[in-house]
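As a warm-up, study this chain.
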Amino acid sequence: MTSAPPATENETAGRPVAPGGWLGWVTSTDHKRIGLLTVGTSLVLLVLVGILALIMRAQLAQPEQELVGVDTYNQLFTMHGSGMIYMVLTPFAIGLGVYLVPLQIGAPAIAMPRITLFGYWLYVVGAVVMLSGFATSNGAHSSGWFSYPPLADSVYTPGVGSDLWIVGVGLATTGTIVMGWSVLWTVLRKRARGMTMLRLPVFSWSMIVTCLMVIGAFPALLAALALLAAGRVDPSIFQSNVWNIGYQHLFWFYGHPVVYVMFFPYLAAVAEVLAVFSGRRFFGYKGTVVSLLVFAALSMSVWGHHMFATGQATNDYYSLTSIALLVPAGVEYFAMLGTIVGGRIRFSTPMMFALAFVPQFLIGGLTGIMVGTPVIDYHVTDSYFIVAHLHYVLFAGSGFGLFAAVYFWFPKVTGVMLGDRGGRLHFWLLVIGTNLTFLPMFALGYLGMPRRVATYADFEGFGVMNLLSSIGAAFLAAGMMVFIVNVLWTLRRRYLGRADPAPDDPWGGHSLEWATASPPPRFNFSTEYPLPPVTSFAPLLDLRQRLGREVPDPAPGGKS
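Now compare it with the structure written out below.
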């Protein structure tokens, strides 16, 4: 169903005036503000849970170190993993959709804006509740982000911190489901005239499949949390292995799709960046759309490969479905390569992050197929090989896609460019840090270092590889400091009126968000910024080609 034309200033003059200042932000039903609140909250939490990882890497830099105790270390890795998945990468992906999808489909607003705002606040309260476990007498939850029973019951993991973790994860997950519904309903009901489903940008398609997985798989996590909460009240529940294995089935029915929830939007952001900075229409658009849908469907059928070592999963079936993921993944990978090959590549900061994403994504994907093979998984399960694989997917992959998105859409959101020199320094520090941190972990896992250990003996021979990983983590910390300074410096200059305004479309974008002002007006489009005709998934590229216009050179960023 299509939407009405965008509201003009005269048409909205009689509406109630929204409050200003901070109150206007926290109560706003403008999808752009809700999206920015979600993304901004996620970035703040990224820094906090990243600090937990730095403490762990400092502990493991040398054998037999005791910078923190074993119980504290268990809390650190639990809250780091929980934070990154429940509080950072998943909400950031949904927040990006809340901001961009209405703009990309030519809608004046998001569907169910009050419900969307409610979802954001559920997420915030959940994050606060989860982290508040550190303030309790026994500390925060310490049984891992998956919290298998009976380890996570009240006998083996006592304390209020674990109860707060269950409540916090439940609230944050419910908020994510609510926001996912809003984004999906917006695409289905509020598209502009001419915006058929096969004219949606790749990013909007990625949000459709992401929201379908959120709606289909995330309730399983709520059911698993309810089972865990019942087991903490009555630990005898988990004396039966039926409930222990049943919890794992429920959890991993959520736990594998959530990996793609934390991946597809960043993959699509990279696709948008590659197309724009190659000066070409995205290659293999229809094949990519189909592959996203197939990938999402298969993601709901592979959860058992996380349970090979339990002996309670059908190995042949789950191995087959896991390996089948190679097909849609290959389609997406070659679509990205096909977009780059033969293009007029402009090496801007977002393009550099997007290009680095491609080989790093490949490492994460191929090692995922390896651990989907039972004979390999038996050897490396619960080792540092799994840690390396997961971080190549979610940091070397999704993390670089996240930063490509930030640098790409920052001028659209703020009206100014992020500092180019700071962005390039940030990029190189992250490339070095990412691969120096996580590549040695593959070797550590293969040689037998188990994950989730607070220290290791000198004679085990893990010291050199762990030292390299810890040095890499220092590069990551330096890169994040550069990013934080760059963002704060640019925003301060904008606030003081010292930053040069960026053009509305500094990159030569392809999709509709670049047809309006930067930042966009309240209802996205207006008489001054009307919607162009939608003739394909790249309407602005179509318009430039019809008018014979050249793609603009990237606007210069600041010198920070």
